[in-house]
Specification:
13 helices, mainly alpha, globular
Length: about 280
């Protein structure tokens, strides 16, 4: 083959990029500007009508608020817990114990979301959950975690952090291992304490990893669907209804594909803008 035609090798990648990423985005944009539904399957152009209707929809505004509340409960706590656990594991002198602890934290991350939610549903069950036994032991009444407004969102957040923190720990440990130990040795000679080492050496040098973890967590949690759908189904009284659940409800239960696409596009734009600002 004549290697002067090197651009020929770009075709497979471009085909995948256009077919799997670009074309679906263009189609969703077109769908969001139409009145498509099960009764009117044609892509008749209605302009920005779906978007105008969207911002007058109290349920959409509530789902948007719930999504950002969930982000508040998960993104920063998940990052801080991951950083603290990574620093503790990184300080261990025995590599076997460090590897064992890292595996314990990371194993939940590789579990399917259905397994994770089922396990936590059993543990938090008001009838036979082991967490309820601890509450009774300390003199508290049993709590229906996923059926009470004040507990449902924090409960799903705790399940999410338990499930995903292992990935953050892995990233932070990689960042900590990349720091030259001679820098810490020099700080010891200068009489730096543990806090000074963290503030002036560790934190600045792992900030790129921290920014990456925060950005990834922000994207993941803005797209929350699985845990919320499986644990609370948006209840009680829509207190845990998030944006992607509303997309599913409008698109697949109410067959309003155009309106659901408009919701998806708004979430898509929010993720892009917030991720750029965060990074």
């Amino acid at each position: 083959m004549n290697f002067k035609h090197k651009y020929f090798f770009l075709f497979p990648g471009l085909f995948v990029l256009i077919g799997i990423l670009i074309f679906p985005i263009i189609f969703v944009v077109r769908l969001s500007l139409s009145g498509w539904n099960s009764y009117n399957p044609g892509l008749d152009y209605i302009g920005l009508e779906n978007y105008i209707k969207l911002f007058n929809d109290k349920l959409f505004l509530k789902s948007l608020k719930n999504t950002f509340v969930f982000v508040f409960w998960t993104v920063v706590p998940n990052t801080l817990i991951g950083l603290m656990c990574a620093m503790m594991i990184n300080r261990l002198k025995n590599p076997y114990i460090a590897a064992f602890l890292l595996a314990c934290f990371f194993i939940p991350h590789i579990l399917p979301v259905t397994v994770v939610t089922q396990v936590w549903s059993w543990m938090l069950s008001k009838q036979y959950g082991i967490i309820q036994e601890f509450l009774e032991f300390f003199g508290y009444a049993k709590i229906a975690f996923f059926k009470k407004k004040q507990f449902a969102m924090p409960a799903v957040a705790i399940v999410t952090i338990w499930w995903t923190v292992g990935f953050n720990i892995l990233l932070f440990i990689a960042g900590l291992k990349s720091i030259n130990p001679e820098i810490y040795e020099a700080s010891d000679l200068d009489g730096a304490n543990s806090w000074a080492k963290f503030r002036y050496i560790t934190w600045p040098l792992i900030w790129p990893i921290t920014a990456l973890v925060l950005t990834l967590q922000l994207i993941f949690q803005l797209k929350i669907f699985d845990q919320m759908y499986l644990l609370t189904a948006g209840g009680p009284f829509n207190s845990t209804l998030v944006v992607l659940q509303l997309v599913y409800k409008q698109g697949f239960q109410m067959n309003r594909g155009g309106y659901a696409s408009a919701i998806a596009m708004v979430l898509f734009l929010i993720i892009i803008v917030v991720s750029i600002m965060q990074y």
